[in-house]
Amino acid sequence: MSPATGVAARGLALGYGGEPVLEEVDFSAGAGTTVSVLGPNGGGKTTLFKGLLGELAPVRGTAATAGRPAYVAQTDRTRLDFPVTALDVALMGSLARGRWWLPPRRSDRALAREALERVGLADEAFTRFGQLSGGQRQRTLIARALVQDAAVLLLDEPLAGVDPASADRIEAVFAELRAEGRTLLVSTHDVESAARHDLVLCLNRRQVAFGPPAEVLVRQTLEATYGSEIVVIDDGTGSVRAIAVGHHAH
Amino acid sequence: MELLDLLLEPWRSGLERRALIEVVLLGLACGPLGFWVITYGLSYPAESLGHGLLPGLVIAALAGAPLLLGAAGGVAVGAAAVALAAHDERIGPDTATAVVVTGLFGAGTLIALSPDAPARLEELLFGDPLGVSDADLVAAAALATLGTLALAALHRPLCAVALDGPGATALGVAPARVRAGLLALLAAALAVAVQGLGSLLVLALIVGPALAVRRHARAPTRAMLAGGAVAALAGVAGLYASHHLGSAAGASVALTLCVAALAGAALPVRRAAAARARPGGG
Prior knowledge:
The complex is a heterodimer.
Chain A: E1 7-15, E2 20-29, E3 34-38, H1 45-53, E4 60-65, E5 70-72, H2 86-91, H3 106-118, H4 134-148, E6 152-156, H5 164-179, E7 183-188, H6 191-194, E8 199-203, E9 207-211, H7 213-216, H8 219-226, E10 230-234, E11 240-244
Parallel strand pairs in A: 3-7, 3-8, 5-6, 6-7
Antiparallel strand pairs in A: 1-2, 1-4, 8-9, 10-11
Chain B: H1 2-8, H2 14-39, H3 43-52, H4 54-63, H5 67-86, H6 93-112, H7 121-126, H8 134-163, H9 165-170, H10 175-214, H11 220-245, H12 249-266, H13 272-277
Helix pairs in contact in B: 2-8, 2-10, 2-11, 3-5, 3-6, 3-10, 4-5, 4-6, 5-6, 5-10, 8-10, 10-11, 10-12, 11-12
């Protein structure tokens, strides 16, 4: 089953051969929606993405996306000593259209340049990927996803360790992609940035909650999601602030 | 004219001319491949397969069959044995590879040293570029041509997986298949190149040039071209050294390849690429 638009999981359980490490996942997000995927380390965010990418077959249930999703990894999981330029990396997005054995077309090159311009890196097209700042590398990987032109984008902590200028640019691109009718799943540890998305999916080895931020980002849900890793501060105005403790950012 | 004589003199003999063609062809084939072998962390498997194919070579030599056939069979058996042993999680892939390859190497030596075996072990271990046959030259030419075509076809998937495996998967590129394709190319290169450099020295041809250029190349294509050029030139330099010093040809070529690798590692890296791309020279 492949939804016409967006992402859908029904009774999904995923694992790595043994017991499922993530279960009871049941949510859907239509076109033009951004979903924040919130949870502690080991909570199942990466596992969910692997399931949606088809790298992991469901133990139970189903996972479906509109077409093949694009995936934006954390840049510290990429190889920084590999001698390719930002433009080369953006161009890799055209591999999704097949013809892998042939050089990229002229039109693909134009798309890659356009994508770099959209993420504010037109001037860095010929800079080596490994020499870019963390935020610039993240934007380059987003440019690769733009060239891939997927309807669904999965982004693994795209704002972690990113400089403020890059973060602003990335958030602006997210808004544009949403306006274009694409579905974005953005994993994060940051409760405040989660509040800026249309929907929030909380995972802690199972689905804890799913819904609009105002309903999901409440003390009870956050404590169920993070357990002892979080301190929730209720300021008495109905909104909560959450501070992660004992979390190792990466 | 004296210098010209010095340069041309070794190639007046038919044997040495063939050796020259062999090392240039092997260099053009193995130099570019070596870049990917190093990038994908396959130097140890490459060395292991080079050693593990010895029984195949020895059996072919004893049976009077083409050595290329023996090397190909040896690589296939060695790769299968390593893959099987690496499945045992109690041992771990590195230890499993070490044990299997040492076992295969020992078995090859044992067969070669059996009393009525022909005394060709030295040639099989260290190679003899001066003893290559027409068939070896044809095989080297085929490897250089088909290997280059295969690397050109695999170029984009190889780059995508090298940078970011999960990202490549999302683009529809299967990292396991790309690695398998690279391993198949490596196996073919070992089977052909072992005729010239032998089971023990063949690794130098694959890893040496790639190490020499890797830190200096600004793009994979440039690293591959430079690797091919360094491999061919170092091979020729090795043959000159062998001719003028009277040293063993295979070992001389292997040594010049290693010297090239050391020189490349010692040379400072030019930072021009970064300066060019960043106005203001940042």
